[in-house]
């Protein structure tokens, strides 16, 4: 069943149409019957139900997955997002933080929490969490710049979210240059140079 599952694991559910989602749903249901103690099949079903907008069934499958693997950070955070949509902010935050606790070196866990903080108008806190995420994957700084721009962060706020490393500053400088903020871009490029030098001393 694991070999069969690998054939659908890499499908981008966001881009899949309803027919494809329903076909994958039937397949994951079949895999659950074959191997009822495998948490990832229930998690996959939860994801599919979420994209089909069946939130109750999504929650049920996430909870089943979590009962089989209680330290799955991604699953904890997905449940947190669903709970947040229902208005239970306190429980949602506990779940999002638990997701980080059990998956501490995964930048996606920090990214999810930072986005959630942004949505909930807690910008200062989210800046610190974005910084932790970028620290873990500086090569993907452009992704974080795009996310922060999407949520209305100013260039000064984005700069505050950058760890003092050459690559994040270089990518931010390129972004500033692209949008015509040449003066700030020059300052950021100079900082990038300083950080690169200290990294290679």
Question: Can you walk through the features of this model?
Answer:
By secondary structure, the protein is mainly α. Helices cover 76% and strands 0% of the residues. The longest helix is centred in the C-terminal third of the chain and has 18 residues, at 182-199. The radius of gyration is 20 Å and the shape is elongated.
Short characterization:
By secondary structure, the chain is an all-alpha fold.
Key attributes of the depicted protein:
201 residues, mainly alpha, 12 helices
End-to-end gap: 51 Å
Look at the helices and sheets and give the structural class: mainly alpha
Strand content: under 5%
- State the share of residues found in helices, binned by percent: over 70%
Which overall shape is indicated by the principal axes computed on the Cα atoms?
A: elongated
Low-confidence stretches: none
How large, in whole angstroms, is the Cα Rg?
Answer: 20 Å
């Amino acid at each position: 069943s694991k070999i069969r599952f690998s054939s659908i694991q890499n499908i981008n559910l966001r881009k899949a149409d309803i027919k494809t989602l329903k076909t994958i749903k039937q397949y994951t249901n079949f895999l659950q019957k074959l191997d009822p103690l495998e948490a990832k099949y229930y998690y996959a079903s939860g994801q599919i139900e979420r994209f089909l907008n069946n939130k109750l069934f999504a929650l049920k499958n996430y909870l089943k997955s979590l009962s089989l693997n209680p330290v799955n950070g991604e699953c904890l955070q997905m449940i947190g997002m669903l709970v947040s949509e229902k208005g239970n902010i306190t429980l949602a935050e506990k779940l999002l933080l638990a997701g980080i606790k059990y998956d501490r070196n995964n930048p996606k866990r920090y990214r999810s929490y930072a986005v959630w903080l942004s949505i909930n108008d807690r910008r200062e806190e989210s800046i610190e969490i974005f910084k932790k995420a970028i620290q873990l994957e500086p090569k993907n700084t452009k992704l974080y710049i795009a996310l922060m721009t999407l949520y209305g962060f100013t260039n000064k706020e984005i700069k505050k979210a950058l760890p003092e490393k050459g690559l994040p500053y270089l990518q931010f400088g390129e972004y500033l240059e692209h949008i015509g903020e040449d003066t700030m871009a020059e300052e950021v490029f100079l900082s990038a140079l300083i950080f690169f030098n200290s990294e290679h001393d």
